[in-house]
Amino acid sequence: MEWSEVIDNPLLQNLPFKIELNKFGKLLMSPASNSHGRFQGRIAGALWQRQPEGEVITECSIQTSEGVKVADVAWASAAFIAEFGYATPYLKAPELCVEIVSPSNSKQEIAEKVELYLAKGAQEVWVVYEDKRMETFSHTGQIEQSKFAPDIKSKIFR
């Protein structure tokens, strides 16, 4: 399938799953929990307060070398939006991509997504765990603190 077919298919709308495509065009679905949604909302709200000059996008689709991946939350600068608008999926990753780890996610899957987002131009990728851990990655590897929101942990882990 192509991403436009996924978006336009009425049978795939309003499902309680996160949908992605692998590199062969096959659907990947992950169930979403209310806890996952709560973290998504907290991260989006905190980013909106911290970086109001850009856009916060939840369920941000990005075309990667391994298919369309969907970041739980992304932050795109005004310059990114001016260049790419709201194309679906983005051919380049916004500056910040966030993955909230679900019980169904493997470590390998999350590591691959981090690499894919960075390869597509993300400056940082956050990996957020529901047990109040967070890892931040840049092109240099894991880093101690985000340049986008250094105080984000206190905002999302209440």
Describe the model.
This protein is an alpha+beta fold. It has a single domain (about 35-155), classed as tt1808, chain A (Alpha-Beta Complex), CATH 3.90.1570. About 30% of the residues lie in helices and about 30% in strands. The protein has five helices and eight strands; from the N terminus they run αββαββαβαβββα. The protein has a six-stranded mixed β-sheet. The longest helix has 17 residues, at about 35-50. The chain is globular, with a radius of gyration of 15 Å. It starts with a helix and ends with a helix. GO terms for molecular function: endonuclease activity. Keywords: Endonuclease, Hydrolase, Nuclease. Pfam families: Uma2 (PF05685).
Summarize the structure.
The chain is an alpha+beta fold and 158 residues long. It has helices at 3-8, 34-50, 78-84, 107-119, 152-156; strands at residues 17-21, 27-31, 55-64, 67-76, 96-100, 124-129, 133-138, 141-143. The strands form two sheets. Strands 3-4-5-6-7-8 form a six-stranded mixed beta sheet. Strands 1-2 form a two-stranded antiparallel ribbon.
